[in-house]
Amino acid sequence: MTEFTPLASLVGGAMIGLSAVLLMAWEGRIAGISGIAGRLLPPYRDGAFTSRLGFVVGLIAAPLLVATVTGGEITQTVSSNIPLMVVAGLLVGFGSVYGNGCTSGHGVCGLSRLSLRSLVATLVFMSTGFATVFLVRHAIGA
C-alpha cells in the first residue's frame, strides 16, 4: 500500500518548483533532468558542466540530508526483476529522447510555460503510468 504524505509531497513539490525557477533565472535553462544528466557526458557543448553536476549531486544528496535532519530512514522499493528493469529503463530513455524531454522538463517547466507540446507529452506519460500501475497491480497480479 502506498503511504499518504501530503506535507512531504507539498514541500517536495515546492522545492522542485523553486529549483526550476532558480535554474531558469540564473542559467536561462529548463530543469529537464534527462537533458541535465545527459549533458554531463562528453561531448561538452557549453561551460555549464559544474552547475549540471551540482544539480545532479543535489538530487542525490537531498534524501540523505532529509534523513539526517529528521532522523528518518530512507526507504525505496526497487524491483528485483532485472529483465523488467532493463526494459523499463530502455523505454524511459527512448521516451525522453523521442518526446524531446522528460517528466520534469515537460511536466514541471513546460506546463508552467503553457507549452502545448508539453501538455501532450505530459498527458501521454501520465496515461502510460496510470495504465502500467493498473496492469501491474490488477491485471498481471503483482
Shape: globular
The percent of residues in helical segments reads: over 70%
pLDDT under 50 segments (min length 5)?
A: none
Instruction: List the total number of helices.
Output: 6
Order of helices and strands: HHHHHH
Major sheet size, sense and barrel closure? none
Mean pLDDT: 86
Count the E strands.
0
Structural class: mainly alpha
Question: What is the domain total for the residues?
Answer: 1
Keywords, please?
single chain; globular; 142 residues; mainly alpha; 6 helices
Characterization of this structure:
- With 142 residues, this protein is mostly helical.
- The chain has one domain.
- Helices cover 71% and strands 0% of the residues.
- It has 6 helices and no strands.
- It has helices at residues 6-27, 33-38, 49-70, 82-98, 103-112, 116-139.
- Helix 5 crosses helix 6 (116-139).
- It starts with 5 loop residues before the first helix and ends with a helix.
- 12% of the residues are buried.
The gist of it:
The protein has 142 residues and is mainly alpha-helical.
Layout of helices and strands:
Blueprint: H1 6-27, H2 33-38, H3 49-70, H4 82-98, H5 103-112, H6 116-139
Helix pairs in contact: 5-6
